[in-house]
Amino acid sequence: MKVLVTGGLGFIGSHTVVELQNKGFDVVIIDDCSNSDENVLDGIQAITGKKPLYEKLDLKEKHKVEDFFQRHQDVEGVIHFAASKAVGESVEKPLLYYENNIGTLVYILKELCNKNKASFIFSSSCTVYGQADKMPITEDAPVKVAESPYGNTKQMGEEIISDTCKVTPSLNAIALRYFNPMGAHPSGEIGELPKGVPQNLVPFITQTGIGLRQELSVFGDDYPTPDGTCIRDYIYVVDLAKAHVVALERLLNGKNEANYEVFNVGTGTGSSVLEAIQSFEKVSGRKLNYKIVDRRPGDITSAYADTTKANKVLGWKAEYTLEEAMNYAWIWEQKIRD
Ligand SMILES: NC(=O)c1ccc[n+]([C@@H]2O[C@H](COP(=O)([O-])OP(=O)(O)OC[C@H]3O[C@@H](n4cnc5c(N)ncnc54)[C@H](O)[C@@H]3O)[C@@H](O)[C@H]2O)c1
């Protein structure tokens, strides 16, 4: 069964390609390498013994998307990771984000609507909840006004898919709302490769740990949390990748209850910034150079998932702890700086 993975050379996409190939799927990747590198294909091959098909293609070019689907009529499922994801950049260049995250989604959905049957998985985010009123966050929690154009593209993306599914019975879709993906493959062959200053906490921690950055700034220790720092739900990237395979199989096997469904993907456990630092110090045996600075505008206090729906309905559950995931992130950081 052939599956298209857009953004399959990226962080979450590459780990998902591995899990798909391990399950016997034929994968074709589309990526424009705007935030990744073709060497990732070698990593995937080293782990799975198979190099996936790959087309270097910019999904913003509509006619190329049409041409791709013309040439690959046997694609039965699409997992759509390709997007721009830097929150700060999205505030400065909103149109770039709307074009890349919304335009590409529309082009792909148009192609899928022409098929007799299609399955689609969308990368959404817990950012849609903003600062939720209740913890842990269930899928029923209200979607809050987006804090950034990036966050808005995830909300709008979900609405576009939902509206399209309502009038397209042949299209089945699942939006997965990721919490905070982190870590790297246990093999050390693939991992997160942030270009420039990392946007996420864990690569910032490991880059500071290895000496690439002088110091980690912890934004605020006066939040209403046990140690005063912000709380997030760190989900190991391999667990997250497996959630995509399970979600796709649900659609391909016709097990879905509606033709558009939404699931949280997290561990269900919140960890503070200081706990993440302690976990790094434990696995690396190094002291991390960090300082407490003022709060950062736009940061929410706490976000962790209620994973009951994913556990019961998808039959999926996160298996790895923060410490295990941090250990793999650290092994990866050391390997790429060798
Ligand atoms: N990493 C996170 O913290 C996080 C959290 C929630 C949601 N997400 C979403 O998950 C998805 C994957 O995230 P990631 O962390 O793996 O990001 P990533 O940047 O590592 O991967 C995205 C990939 O898409 C490719 N791409 C971007 N625009 C493209 C285009 N126009 N045509 C073809 N390829 C294109 C990039 O080159 C990259 O390889 C994104 O949609 C992101 O918004 C990520």
Please explain how this structure is put together.
The chain has 338 residues and is of the alpha/beta class. The chain has 2 domains: 2-183 and 234-265, NAD(P)-binding Rossmann-like Domain (Rossmann fold); 201-231 and 268-337, UDP-galactose 4-epimerase, domain 1 (Alpha-Beta Complex). 40% of the residues lie in helices and 18% in strands. The protein has helices spanning 11-22, 40-48, 62-71, 87-92, 94-113, 149-166, 201-209, 237-252, 273-284, 308-314, 322-336; strands at residues 2-6, 26-31, 53-56, 75-80, 118-125, 171-178, 180-182, 216-219, 231-232, 234-236, 260-265, 271-272, 290-293. Strands 3-2-1-4-5-6-11 form a 7-stranded parallel β-sheet, with helices on both faces. Helix 6 (149-166) links the parallel strand 5 (118-125) and strand 6 (171-178). Helix 3 packs parallel to helix 5 (94-113) and helix 7 (201-209) crosses helix 11 (322-336). It is globular. The model has no long low-confidence stretch (mean pLDDT 97). The site of nicotinamide-adenine-dinucleotide (NAD) has 28 residues, from helix 1, strand 2, helix 5 and strand 5.
